[in-house]
Amino acid sequence: MMEFLKDKSENVTILHVGARPRYFVNKFKTNADKWRVIGDFKSDLERDTYAIQNCTHFLTIDFNSNENRKSGSLKTVEYCLNLDKMRI
Q1: pTM of the model
Q2: Is the dihedral of CA 78, 84, 85, 88 positive or negative?
């Protein structure tokens, strides 16, 4: 997603667990140098809860659900939709 957004928008917030992101895009000649980065969350759940509570839009892709299993990503999508967050 970061690779997609780096040339599209300055209005992006990156949230991460721990001291620094596991991955970040190259900032050279992109919008990524203007992105807001918030870290030091202790768990994925803490990060995701903060994100959902503070967003107006969401961008999530579910690659892992099937007829036998509902992934965490799909649960997040459903939660966001129930809160009237806007899908990008």
Answers
A1: 0.76
A2: positive
